[in-house]
Write a structure and sequence with these properties.
Blueprint lengths: L10 H11 L8 E4 L2 H12 L7 E4 L7 E5 L5 E5 L12 H9 L2 E5 L6 H13 L5 E5 L9 H9 L3 E5 H10 L7 H11 L4 E5 L5 E4 L4 E4 L12 H14 L4 H16 L10 H12 L2
Parallel strand pairs: 1-2, 5-6, 6-7, 7-8
Antiparallel strand pairs: 3-4, 8-9, 9-10
Length: 287
Protein backbone atom coordinates (compact mmCIF):
# COMPACT_ATOMS: atom_id res chain seq x y z
CA UNK A 1 0.00 0.00 0.00
CA UNK A 2 2.03 2.92 -1.35
CA UNK A 3 1.22 6.60 -0.87
CA UNK A 4 0.10 6.59 -4.51
CA UNK A 5 -2.25 3.64 -3.96
CA UNK A 6 -2.19 -0.18 -3.98
CA UNK A 7 0.45 -1.89 -6.12
CA UNK A 8 1.23 -5.56 -6.46
CA UNK A 9 4.49 -6.38 -4.73
CA UNK A 10 6.23 -8.62 -2.26
CA UNK A 11 9.50 -10.45 -2.82
CA UNK A 12 8.05 -13.62 -4.44
CA UNK A 13 6.12 -11.74 -7.13
CA UNK A 14 8.92 -9.21 -7.66
CA UNK A 15 11.56 -11.92 -8.04
CA UNK A 16 9.43 -13.97 -10.46
CA UNK A 17 8.68 -10.89 -12.56
CA UNK A 18 12.31 -9.85 -12.90
CA UNK A 19 13.34 -13.44 -13.64
CA UNK A 20 10.84 -13.40 -16.52
CA UNK A 21 12.38 -10.18 -17.88
CA UNK A 22 15.66 -12.09 -18.05
CA UNK A 23 14.10 -14.82 -20.16
CA UNK A 24 13.54 -17.31 -17.34
CA UNK A 25 10.24 -18.85 -16.23
CA UNK A 26 9.48 -17.16 -12.92
CA UNK A 27 6.65 -18.71 -10.88
CA UNK A 28 5.16 -17.19 -7.73
CA UNK A 29 4.45 -19.68 -4.92
CA UNK A 30 2.32 -17.86 -2.38
CA UNK A 31 -1.24 -17.48 -1.05
CA UNK A 32 -3.83 -14.72 -1.37
CA UNK A 33 -7.33 -14.27 -0.02
CA UNK A 34 -10.48 -14.99 -1.96
CA UNK A 35 -11.21 -11.27 -2.02
CA UNK A 36 -10.94 -8.26 -4.31
CA UNK A 37 -7.23 -7.70 -3.67
CA UNK A 38 -6.56 -11.40 -4.24
CA UNK A 39 -8.45 -11.30 -7.55
CA UNK A 40 -6.53 -8.19 -8.57
CA UNK A 41 -3.21 -9.77 -7.61
CA UNK A 42 -3.88 -12.92 -9.65
CA UNK A 43 -5.09 -10.86 -12.62
CA UNK A 44 -2.05 -8.60 -12.42
CA UNK A 45 0.31 -11.57 -12.31
CA UNK A 46 -1.40 -13.07 -15.36
CA UNK A 47 -1.16 -9.68 -17.08
CA UNK A 48 2.60 -9.73 -16.53
CA UNK A 49 2.78 -13.05 -18.34
CA UNK A 50 3.46 -15.05 -15.17
CA UNK A 51 1.81 -18.30 -14.14
CA UNK A 52 -0.60 -18.22 -11.22
CA UNK A 53 -0.67 -22.03 -10.89
CA UNK A 54 1.17 -21.98 -7.53
CA UNK A 55 -0.84 -19.17 -5.94
CA UNK A 56 -3.17 -20.63 -3.35
CA UNK A 57 -6.52 -19.02 -2.44
CA UNK A 58 -7.62 -18.65 1.17
CA UNK A 59 -11.30 -18.49 2.15
CA UNK A 60 -10.65 -17.46 5.75
CA UNK A 61 -7.87 -14.84 5.60
CA UNK A 62 -7.48 -11.68 3.50
CA UNK A 63 -4.78 -11.00 0.96
CA UNK A 64 -1.62 -9.77 2.60
CA UNK A 65 -0.88 -6.05 2.59
CA UNK A 66 2.10 -3.94 3.59
CA UNK A 67 1.84 -0.25 4.41
CA UNK A 68 4.74 1.60 2.77
CA UNK A 69 6.10 5.09 3.32
CA UNK A 70 8.91 6.53 1.20
CA UNK A 71 11.67 8.63 2.76
CA UNK A 72 13.31 11.63 1.06
CA UNK A 73 16.15 9.38 -0.12
CA UNK A 74 13.73 6.97 -1.79
CA UNK A 75 14.17 4.32 0.91
CA UNK A 76 10.92 2.57 1.89
CA UNK A 77 9.65 1.84 5.38
CA UNK A 78 7.41 -1.24 5.64
CA UNK A 79 4.68 -2.15 8.10
CA UNK A 80 3.58 -5.74 7.46
CA UNK A 81 -0.03 -6.45 8.38
CA UNK A 82 -0.88 -9.65 10.28
CA UNK A 83 -3.54 -12.37 10.07
CA UNK A 84 -3.34 -12.62 6.29
CA UNK A 85 -3.38 -15.38 3.68
CA UNK A 86 0.35 -15.83 3.03
CA UNK A 87 0.85 -16.73 6.72
CA UNK A 88 -1.26 -19.84 6.00
CA UNK A 89 0.53 -21.17 2.94
CA UNK A 90 0.08 -24.97 2.76
CA UNK A 91 2.14 -27.80 1.35
CA UNK A 92 0.06 -29.21 -1.51
CA UNK A 93 0.47 -31.75 -4.34
CA UNK A 94 0.70 -28.79 -6.73
CA UNK A 95 3.62 -27.32 -4.83
CA UNK A 96 5.27 -30.76 -4.67
CA UNK A 97 5.08 -31.02 -8.46
CA UNK A 98 6.53 -27.51 -8.83
CA UNK A 99 9.40 -28.24 -6.44
CA UNK A 100 10.25 -31.40 -8.38
CA UNK A 101 10.88 -29.43 -11.58
CA UNK A 102 12.31 -26.16 -10.23
CA UNK A 103 15.88 -25.21 -11.14
CA UNK A 104 16.02 -22.65 -8.33
CA UNK A 105 13.96 -21.34 -5.45
CA UNK A 106 14.29 -17.98 -3.77
CA UNK A 107 12.99 -17.96 -0.20
CA UNK A 108 13.08 -15.43 2.62
CA UNK A 109 12.80 -15.12 6.37
CA UNK A 110 9.59 -13.08 6.73
CA UNK A 111 7.12 -15.87 5.98
CA UNK A 112 9.17 -18.43 7.92
CA UNK A 113 8.34 -16.47 11.07
CA UNK A 114 4.86 -18.01 10.98
CA UNK A 115 4.59 -21.72 11.80
CA UNK A 116 2.19 -22.76 9.03
CA UNK A 117 4.08 -20.92 6.30
CA UNK A 118 7.43 -22.08 7.71
CA UNK A 119 6.30 -25.71 7.48
CA UNK A 120 5.24 -25.27 3.86
CA UNK A 121 8.47 -23.54 2.87
CA UNK A 122 10.59 -26.20 4.60
CA UNK A 123 8.69 -28.96 2.79
CA UNK A 124 9.21 -27.16 -0.52
CA UNK A 125 12.95 -26.85 0.06
CA UNK A 126 13.25 -30.49 1.07
CA UNK A 127 11.39 -31.61 -2.07
CA UNK A 128 13.77 -29.86 -4.46
CA UNK A 129 16.17 -31.85 -6.59
CA UNK A 130 19.72 -31.92 -5.15
CA UNK A 131 20.93 -29.82 -8.10
CA UNK A 132 18.36 -27.05 -7.56
CA UNK A 133 19.69 -23.71 -6.34
CA UNK A 134 18.44 -22.62 -2.92
CA UNK A 135 18.79 -18.84 -2.71
CA UNK A 136 18.06 -17.13 0.60
CA UNK A 137 16.99 -13.48 0.40
CA UNK A 138 17.21 -12.51 4.06
CA UNK A 139 14.81 -9.51 4.17
CA UNK A 140 14.80 -8.63 7.87
CA UNK A 141 11.48 -6.97 8.68
CA UNK A 142 10.19 -5.70 12.03
CA UNK A 143 10.39 -8.47 14.65
CA UNK A 144 9.99 -11.33 12.18
CA UNK A 145 13.34 -13.01 12.75
CA UNK A 146 15.31 -14.71 15.49
CA UNK A 147 18.87 -16.10 15.65
CA UNK A 148 17.44 -19.63 15.43
CA UNK A 149 15.39 -18.79 12.33
CA UNK A 150 18.37 -17.12 10.65
CA UNK A 151 20.63 -20.06 11.50
CA UNK A 152 18.16 -22.57 10.05
CA UNK A 153 17.62 -20.47 6.92
CA UNK A 154 21.33 -20.14 6.16
CA UNK A 155 21.78 -23.87 6.70
CA UNK A 156 19.19 -24.54 3.99
CA UNK A 157 20.79 -22.18 1.43
CA UNK A 158 23.49 -22.42 -1.23
CA UNK A 159 23.52 -18.68 -1.89
CA UNK A 160 22.56 -15.84 0.47
CA UNK A 161 21.73 -12.25 -0.40
CA UNK A 162 21.32 -9.46 2.15
CA UNK A 163 21.91 -5.73 2.29
CA UNK A 164 24.72 -4.09 4.24
CA UNK A 165 22.42 -3.11 7.13
CA UNK A 166 21.11 -6.67 7.39
CA UNK A 167 24.68 -7.98 7.34
CA UNK A 168 25.55 -5.77 10.31
CA UNK A 169 22.51 -7.18 12.16
CA UNK A 170 22.94 -10.84 11.22
CA UNK A 171 26.62 -11.32 12.05
CA UNK A 172 26.36 -10.26 15.73
CA UNK A 173 23.15 -12.28 16.16
CA UNK A 174 24.97 -15.38 14.92
CA UNK A 175 28.19 -14.59 16.83
CA UNK A 176 30.21 -14.35 13.63
CA UNK A 177 32.03 -11.07 14.22
CA UNK A 178 33.83 -9.24 11.41
CA UNK A 179 35.09 -5.69 11.14
CA UNK A 180 33.93 -4.65 7.66
CA UNK A 181 31.42 -5.87 5.05
CA UNK A 182 33.89 -8.13 3.27
CA UNK A 183 35.15 -9.83 6.44
CA UNK A 184 31.59 -10.24 7.75
CA UNK A 185 30.45 -11.72 4.44
CA UNK A 186 33.47 -14.03 4.45
CA UNK A 187 32.67 -15.24 7.97
CA UNK A 188 29.05 -15.85 7.00
CA UNK A 189 30.16 -17.77 3.92
CA UNK A 190 32.58 -19.89 5.93
CA UNK A 191 30.19 -20.55 8.83
CA UNK A 192 27.46 -21.98 6.60
CA UNK A 193 29.58 -23.32 3.72
CA UNK A 194 27.70 -21.03 1.33
CA UNK A 195 28.70 -21.04 -2.30
CA UNK A 196 28.13 -17.29 -2.54
CA UNK A 197 27.23 -14.38 -0.28
CA UNK A 198 25.89 -11.24 -1.93
CA UNK A 199 25.78 -7.95 -0.06
CA UNK A 200 23.85 -5.10 -1.69
CA UNK A 201 24.97 -1.61 -0.66
CA UNK A 202 22.39 0.75 -2.17
CA UNK A 203 24.00 3.59 -4.10
CA UNK A 204 27.40 2.11 -3.25
CA UNK A 205 26.87 -1.02 -5.33
CA UNK A 206 27.48 -4.54 -4.10
CA UNK A 207 29.89 -7.15 -2.85
CA UNK A 208 29.94 -10.78 -4.02
CA UNK A 209 31.98 -13.21 -1.93
CA UNK A 210 32.82 -16.87 -2.56
CA UNK A 211 35.43 -19.11 -0.94
CA UNK A 212 37.99 -18.00 -3.50
CA UNK A 213 36.81 -14.69 -4.94
CA UNK A 214 35.58 -11.23 -3.97
CA UNK A 215 33.89 -9.00 -6.54
CA UNK A 216 33.06 -5.42 -5.59
CA UNK A 217 30.95 -3.09 -7.73
CA UNK A 218 30.72 0.66 -7.18
CA UNK A 219 27.10 0.88 -8.32
CA UNK A 220 25.30 2.54 -11.22
CA UNK A 221 24.35 6.21 -10.65
CA UNK A 222 20.64 6.95 -11.12
CA UNK A 223 18.07 9.44 -9.91
CA UNK A 224 16.31 7.37 -7.25
CA UNK A 225 12.50 7.48 -7.16
CA UNK A 226 12.06 4.60 -4.72
CA UNK A 227 14.11 1.49 -4.07
CA UNK A 228 11.19 -0.94 -3.70
CA UNK A 229 11.93 -4.07 -5.74
CA UNK A 230 15.51 -3.11 -6.57
CA UNK A 231 16.91 -5.82 -4.31
CA UNK A 232 14.58 -8.42 -5.84
CA UNK A 233 15.75 -7.43 -9.32
CA UNK A 234 19.33 -7.89 -8.14
CA UNK A 235 18.46 -11.32 -6.73
CA UNK A 236 16.81 -12.43 -9.98
CA UNK A 237 19.95 -11.57 -11.94
CA UNK A 238 22.04 -13.34 -9.32
CA UNK A 239 19.98 -16.54 -9.70
CA UNK A 240 19.94 -16.45 -13.50
CA UNK A 241 23.65 -15.75 -13.79
CA UNK A 242 24.57 -18.35 -11.21
CA UNK A 243 22.55 -21.10 -12.91
CA UNK A 244 24.16 -20.24 -16.24
CA UNK A 245 27.67 -20.26 -14.83
CA UNK A 246 28.28 -16.62 -15.73
CA UNK A 247 31.49 -15.17 -14.23
CA UNK A 248 30.83 -13.12 -11.10
CA UNK A 249 32.17 -9.88 -12.62
CA UNK A 250 29.45 -10.03 -15.29
CA UNK A 251 26.75 -11.11 -12.83
CA UNK A 252 27.70 -8.14 -10.65
CA UNK A 253 27.51 -5.68 -13.54
CA UNK A 254 24.17 -7.01 -14.78
CA UNK A 255 22.61 -7.11 -11.31
CA UNK A 256 23.67 -3.55 -10.47
CA UNK A 257 22.30 -2.28 -13.77
CA UNK A 258 18.89 -3.86 -13.36
CA UNK A 259 18.66 -2.91 -9.68
CA UNK A 260 19.57 0.71 -10.43
CA UNK A 261 16.94 0.91 -13.18
CA UNK A 262 14.24 -0.37 -10.79
CA UNK A 263 15.29 2.23 -8.20
CA UNK A 264 14.76 4.94 -10.84
CA UNK A 265 11.14 3.84 -11.35
CA UNK A 266 8.01 3.93 -9.19
CA UNK A 267 6.89 0.73 -7.47
CA UNK A 268 8.20 -2.79 -7.23
CA UNK A 269 7.45 -4.03 -10.76
CA UNK A 270 7.81 -1.22 -13.29
CA UNK A 271 6.88 -1.83 -16.92
CA UNK A 272 9.78 -3.38 -18.78
CA UNK A 273 12.27 -1.08 -20.47
CA UNK A 274 13.41 -3.28 -23.34
CA UNK A 275 16.68 -1.41 -23.83
CA UNK A 276 17.66 -1.97 -20.20
CA UNK A 277 16.46 -5.57 -20.09
CA UNK A 278 18.16 -6.42 -23.37
CA UNK A 279 21.45 -4.94 -22.16
CA UNK A 280 21.26 -6.99 -18.94
CA UNK A 281 20.41 -10.18 -20.82
CA UNK A 282 23.33 -9.56 -23.16
CA UNK A 283 25.75 -9.25 -20.24
CA UNK A 284 24.53 -12.58 -18.86
CA UNK A 285 24.92 -14.27 -22.25
CA UNK A 286 28.26 -12.89 -23.43
CA UNK A 287 30.80 -15.52 -24.38
Amino acid sequence: MLPSGPQLGGAPANFAYFASLLGEEGIVASRVGRDDLGDRAVDRIAGLGLSSEAIQRDDAHPTGTVDVTIGPDGQPEFTINDCVAWEHMAWTPGWAALAARADAVCFGTVCRHRACAATAVAAFLEALRPSALRLLDVNLRQDRYTPALLHDSFQRAHVAKLNDEELRTVCPLLDLGGEDPESMARRLQNAYDLELVCVTRGAHGSLLVTASETVAHAGVPVDVVDTIGAGDAFTAVLASGYLRGVPLERVSEAANRLGAWVASQTGAMPAADEAVCSAVRDILREV
